[in-house]
Amino acid sequence: MLHELPPPHREDCVNSLAYEADARVQDPVYGCVGAISVLQQQVAHLQTQLALATSEIARLRETFAIAAAASTTNPSPPPSNSAPANGGPSLFLAPLQTPRSPPQDPDNTLSADLNRPPSIDPQNQESPPRQQPQQSPPASCETPRPASS
């Protein structure tokens, strides 16, 4: 099979075959497709976290801009030991408030880890059978053989 490939591609093919064989030993049902599925779930989770962090940064920048605009229009700071003179909320306290963040996982694991197949998740020794992933298997190194007549 390797002799049919050009020499520059042979090393990549051997590495791919070795990886696929190792993945099949670790997960006899899904092999490397199961590992790819877990990685895709982790990417989706991290993209969600990134979107939350980006929106939080935008919210904080807006809060700081409002506070800066308020401080330039009113150069005298409010008294530090009492409420504002008008009795309303102080704009100067808004940047000091604790930013909202998503709830933290107490076990320090990603929620995507819960969907790992048993062979990939070392903490989960017994788990129910997984549904088959929707991904197609990766392309193999085999070159198509011409149909014999």
TrEMBL record:
<dbReference type="Pfam" id="PF03195">
    <property type="entry name" value="LOB"/>
</dbReference>
<feature type="region of interest" description="Disordered">
    <location>
        <begin position="69"/>
        <end position="149"/>
    </location>
</feature>
<feature type="domain" description="LOB">
    <location>
        <begin position="1"/>
        <end position="57"/>
    </location>
</feature>
<comment type="similarity">
    <text>Belongs to the LOB domain-containing protein family.</text>
</comment>
<feature type="compositionally biased region" description="Low complexity">
    <location>
        <begin position="122"/>
        <end position="140"/>
    </location>
</feature>
<dbReference type="GO" id="GO:0005634">
    <property type="term" value="C:nucleus"/>
</dbReference>
<keyword id="KW-0217">Developmental protein</keyword>
<protein>
    <recommendedName>
        <fullName>LOB domain-containing protein</fullName>
    </recommendedName>
</protein>
<keyword id="KW-0175">Coiled coil</keyword>
<feature type="coiled-coil region">
    <location>
        <begin position="36"/>
        <end position="63"/>
    </location>
</feature>
<dbReference type="InterPro" id="IPR004883">
    <property type="entry name" value="LOB"/>
</dbReference>
<keyword id="KW-0539">Nucleus</keyword>
